Amino acid sequence: MTDLLTRRLDILNRAEGGTLLAGGAQGVEKESLRVRPDGELSLARHPAALGSALTHPHITTDYSEALMEFVTGTHSRAEDLVQELADIHRYVYAEMGDEMLWNQSMPCRLPGEADIPIAWYGTSNSGMLKHVYRRGLAVRYGKSMQCIAGIHFNYSLAPQAWPLISELAGGAQAQQSEGYLALIRNFSRYSWLLMYLFGASPALDAGFMRGREHELQALDENTLYLPWATSLRMSDLGYQNRAQSGLKPCYTDLKSYLDNLYHAVNQPWPPYEAIGTRQNGEWVQLSTHILQIENEYYSSIRPKRVARRGERPLRALHERGVQYVEVRCMDIDPFSPVGFELPAARFLSAFLLMCALDDSPLLPQRGWCQESGDNFALVVKEGRRPGLLLGKGGAQVPLADWAHALLDRIALCAQALDAAHDGGNAHAAALELQRQKIDDPARTPSARVLAGLRETGMSFSEYFLDLGRRHALAFRNQPLGAAERAVFDAESRRSIQEQEELERTQTGNFDDYVAAYHSSLYD
């Protein structure tokens, strides 16, 4: 007798000549702060040569004018994905002057809160909506927290796969949506493994805490850390928000998830009501609700659907179902020039395929996230502690034992992906690299960061500035060819023209635009 994972893999291996598993898609969104040559945060505007941050499909900004975001297209092959990300970096470096990208999830030395520049997107109503939303993030969470950066990994199975493996009697859209919700439930159970394997932020610049109380230890006078931490970015040092503490989507079905977020974007929160939406005639936040918009909900994974221009993400999901998932807990790999290595992409594909195909029972309605949430929180702060135990079904099990058991399951998916792509062993080899980290925690990125700090005697900021200089030199020594550069140049010009057209042709004032945006959720 075979279990559900192996049965589903067999179905997909036999479908469409064994090529169906190669038909999934993956993409990356990578954030990086721009810094000056001395390692201080850049206060300069987004480089004009890179086009419009509002309308460029691949080069934009996130919270701050200095927080760049690179967005790849979707690819079926991890090699193509990482190559596109590298090409974006090479183009950007050619237009940055003497500035560099800060290739670490925790920020560089930051100026005072007032001096951190909020991203600007022009005077169109859609551009102002993005800008005012970020003003709201500033008043709700502080600007420093918004300078934390990461990797978002987007993943989908081929749409034809879901009807073949679904046990749901509904139509294709419902089968696909519920399949992704099942994936997310398993992800919530096992995402601690990703933090152990890929967490790369066990330390930070001491100035980041700005006098707040914390439990960090001093590595030197300018560096704070936790000795066994994997990802301080994903710990409670990151986004702390009492308003969001009650948002615990159970991922039982799409309707309950949407209802939970719909409530949050329509429910006032007293501290935000005290701030108001305007101060001295200026917009300071889009609403006084728990969430200004649904994207404000911070989670390690999200169900997603590409929205049309001006369409709310919730409405897109409600009307057309889940299209892919966005994994949001990955730290930047500071030892990789692009911040994301090819083996990581291959392993994530196998990990998420396992989450999609393996049995995924519903999570308990009450306290569903307690055990998985506790495991995640424990690993981000103490993941490399020898003999660490995690909760599993009410029992305590060694992290290493559970990790190896999961890797055995993921290995089945890695082998299937290799067979579907080219018959090689690239995915299996990527998995074995992760197994080495279980056997030897010194191989994890978080351990390598701390070892580098100790061996060089550098502070956090000095160490990553030095590493960033080397990455910058590598990109500048390998510029794009003329033909490749021409494609990027044309995209930059087109994005500027599109923003100018938006600003020239828009009608109505911003107040009415915000009101219409808030009312555009599904009925």
TrEMBL record:
GO BP annotations, alphabetical order: glutathione biosynthetic process
GO molecular function (one): ATP binding
Catalytic activity, as annotated: L-cysteine + L-glutamate + ATP = gamma-L-glutamyl-L-cysteine + ADP + phosphate + H(+)
Pathway participation: Sulfur metabolism; glutathione biosynthesis; glutathione from L-cysteine and L-glutamate: step 1/2
Superkingdom per UniProt: Bacteria
Catalytic class of the enzyme: ligase
EC number: 6.3.2.2
Database matches in InterPro entries: Gln_synth/guanido_kin_cat_dom, Glu_cys_ligase, Glut_cys_ligase
SUPFAM superfamilies: Glutamine synthetase/guanido kinase (SSF55931)
Gene3D superfamilies: 3.30.590.20
One Pfam match: Glu_cys_ligase
Residues annotated as domain Glutamate--cysteine ligase: 10-366
Keyword terms of this UniProt record: ATP-binding, Glutathione biosynthesis, Ligase, Nucleotide-binding
Record's GO cellular component terms: cytosol
Signal sequence, renumbered to the chain: none
PANTHER family noted in UniProt: GLUTAMATE--CYSTEINE LIGASE
Similarity comment: family membership: Belongs to the glutamate--cysteine ligase type 1 family. Type 1 subfamily.
HAMAP family on file: Glu_cys_ligase
Name of the protein: Glutamate--cysteine ligase
Source organism per UniProt: Verticiella sediminum
